[in-house]
Amino acid sequence: MPNESLPPSLSLFPLPTVLVPGAALGLRVFEPRYLDLVSECGRRGTGFGVCLLMNGDGDPDEGAETTAAAAFGTEAVIEDFGTGDDGLLTLRVRGRRRFHARQLRVRDNGLQVAEVEWCDDDPVEPLRPEHGLLATLLQGVLEQVGGEHADALDTRIDDAAWVGWRLVEMLPLDDLQRQQLLQLDDPHERLDRLLHLLPED
Fold first, then answer.
1. Average pLDDT, the chain
2. pTM for this structure?
3. Strands (E) located in the chain
4. How many domains does the chain have?
5. H helices within 46-131, ranges in order?
6. Which of 23, 108, 159, 190 is 20 to 30 A from 36, alpha carbon to alpha carbon?
7. Locate the Lon N-terminal domain: which residues (predicted)?
């Protein structure tokens, strides 16, 4: 019988990118350990953890050092899968809950599994007046590019957390900036940081 006092565990898929809550990500899967991960997620109906690769060139086969991953990441749930023109498994995943990886172990097949602490869900709080510029910016971006998030503008544009995550997802930030923003719990603090990251005219 499993020990209910143990923290939850999550298989990790380190990537040279940051997945944020609500964002979609396309993946091509070919390494045996990650094919095992996808199969396990399908059987159990669970997600896996996406963490930013903090060094190396993103090739996990070059050695353990290149797969050092950030301690904070986002749970990815599989929305769709298929086969690409090259015969490889393709996935469409969606970011769900943020987590903090507390302890890491490596399975015999090389798959990293972490004991995780789930971060609190985003509070639903209205946008503050000082962040109105960011809402206007997001509205302009989404009206230009369209897509699924554009359909939610009318109902979510005053949601501080949603506006912040969509900007983290869509603005031309570098991955370390995205990672720092992912690790913030307060949506208003995240918006403050985003304001400071905007280019000055």
1. 90
2. 0.88
3. 9-15, 24-29, 48-53, 69-83, 89-106, 112-118
4. 2
5. none
6. 23
7. 7-201
